[in-house]
């Protein structure tokens, strides 16, 4: 029996070993990259519809491997989420950005919110609260606010720990944003669970909004529920002037997308938000 099981599992592993070892190599590389601080946060500006001002940005991780070149987040983020590494990525983003703000000593022209992507694993203990407190300590009274983008990719369970964490984050002034809204399966639950300040209108709805009647209907409904719940709406993936105009007319409060700017290096983002010297 034991021998047969061994034989079977050996057979099985030869079939699956190629993809498995590829994944393991990437995972191993990712761990090393984290140790060596090779993951670099970029920032994509978020624009207020009414004023046209940049009022914040989304922090997006970039990984440039010395040999393999650029590895996209769509490859390493899900891998990190499945293997217990995502909390280290969240932590490294918050620390990296806070240190950069701190050492550059930049005070923004107006209040700015920097949004960090967080995952389900960030809600199983209170480490995230400590990291946000640390961010605050490094950037006192500077006008930089913290936002957290919560995705539905892996659902955040509505546990007591998660509830207590949200309360404390709220008390700290951390803004909550629901990412990928309407593309997962727990979106209305998320609105009750998190009482968000922002709802993001996903790129799947933004692209084609000018011509696709069903997308227009969905976005109208997202904006209506956001207004009823006193939430702001960030339309992401805005690539053209006509998309921007359509979304503004429909009542979206914020924009993000290549039409305004790609994600840029932190220094570049700061340069564009710097308070002009008196
Ligand atoms: P997301 O949170 O939905 O982020 C938006 C993605 O759309 C980003 O891709 C951004 O570069 C891209 N994008 C922005 N504007 C446009 C546009 O006008 N057109 C098009 N075609 N794309 C646009 P990116 O940077 O490749 O990130 C992919 C995903 O990886 C993110 O999707 C997010 O879920 C995840 N991610 C990235 N960084 C982090 C991180 O530090 N932590 C976590 N947990 N997830 C991250
Ligand atoms: Ca996001
Ligand atoms: Ca998004
Ligand atoms: Ca998305």
TrEMBL record:
GO terms for molecular function: cyclic-guanylate-specific phosphodiesterase activity. It is a multi-pass membrane protein. It catalyses: 3',3'-c-di-GMP + H2O = 5'-phosphoguanylyl(3'->5')guanosine + H(+). Its EC number is 3.1.4.52. Signal peptide: none annotated. Its main location: membrane. One of its GO terms (cellular component) is plasma membrane. It is an enzyme of class 3 (hydrolase). Keywords: c-di-GMP, Cell membrane, Hydrolase, Membrane, Transmembrane, Transmembrane helix. It is found in: Cell membrane. Residues 23-277 form the EAL domain. This is cyclic-guanylate-specific phosphodiesterase. The chain holds residues 206 to 483 of 483 of the full protein.
């Amino acid at each position: 029996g034991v021998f047969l099981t061994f034989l079977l599992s050996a057979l099985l592993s030869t079939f699956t070993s190629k993809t498995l070892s590829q994944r393991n190599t990437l995972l191993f590389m990712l761990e090393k990259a984290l140790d060596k601080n090779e993951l670099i946060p970029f920032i994509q500006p978020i624009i207020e519809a009414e004023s046209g001002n940049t009022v914040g940005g989304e922090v997006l991780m970039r990984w440039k491997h010395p040999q393999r070149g650029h590895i996209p987040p769509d490859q390493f983020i899900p891998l990190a989420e499945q293997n217990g590494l995502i909390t280290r990525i969240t932590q490294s983003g918050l620390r990296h950005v806070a240190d950069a703000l701190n050492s550059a000593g930049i005070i923004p022209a107006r209040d700015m919110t920097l949004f960090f992507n967080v995952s389900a694993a960030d809600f199983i203990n209170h480490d995230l609260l400590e990291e946000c407190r640390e961010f605050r300590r490094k950037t006192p009274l500077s006008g930089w606010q913290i936002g957290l983008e919560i995705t539905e990719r892996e659902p955040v369970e509505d546990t007591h720990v998660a509830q207590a964490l949200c309360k404390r984050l709220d008390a700290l002034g951390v803004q909550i944003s629901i990412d990928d809204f309407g593309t997962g399966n727990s979106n209305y639950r998320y609105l009750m669970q998190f009482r968000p300040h922002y709802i993001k209108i996903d790129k799947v709805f933004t692209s084609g909004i000018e011509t696709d009647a069903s997308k227009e209907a969905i976005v109208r409904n997202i904006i209506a529920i956001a207004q009823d719940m006193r939430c702001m709406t960030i339309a992401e993936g805005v690539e053209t002037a006509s998309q921007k105009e359509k979304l503004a007319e429909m009542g979206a409060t914020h924009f993000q997308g290549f039409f305004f700017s790609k994600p840029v290096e932190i220094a570049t983002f700061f340069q564009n938000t710097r308070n002009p010297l008196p």
